[in-house]
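Hello,

Our lab assistant flagged a job as stuck in the queue for most of the afternoon. It eventually completed. Since we weren't sure the result was trustworthy after the delay, we are filing this so someone can double-check. Below is the sequence as submitted and the structure that was eventually returned. Let us know if re-running is recommended.
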Amino acid sequence: MFIQTEATPNPATLKFLPGRVVLSDSTFEARDAQAATRSPLASALFGVPGVSGVYFGHDFISVTKAEDGSEWPQVKPAVLGAIMEHFQSGAPVLAEGAAEAHDEAGEEFYDAADHDTVVTIKDLLETRVRPAVAGDGGDITFRGYKDGIVYLEMKGACSGCPSSTATLRHGVQNLFRHFLPDVREVQAV
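-- returned structure --
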């Protein structure tokens, strides 16, 4: 098994490409060892000293290192080993029922009168924003819309990334304003 790695805009996060589907129809994020218990792979990765976050996309795994002095030259080989060992074992990426429990975690909020605006926001996210952000090892999901403000959740490499504010302000916010003049601002939750 050959696993490629790519840098992300977030220097604390690397993107690992195992050359196969990681999660076919959902995503998964664990920001601590307790959340990782829903995934055998995430649990194994949190067993690597220096790992502080894990995100699974369709065909990639983003791993964030701790800010405790851990450096990628020490952490990366152990992460590669944990990923390889997991896929060779044939164990599932997620424990039974973990995807359903994870999807319920983020309740959306918006006024029913804004339904058409929210549909357009979600369409723009799906077709223009999420594919680009996935290329950087992260994800952005809709959480709410109120009083002209779009609330988005940053995941994976985007969470805690120094350039995520610029991505939201200059990229996503300008895109939404172009198509939806009622959108005043975009905020991360």
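-- support follow-up --
The delay was a queue issue, not a problem with the job. The result is valid. The longest strand covers residues 138-146. The longest helix spans residues 115-135.
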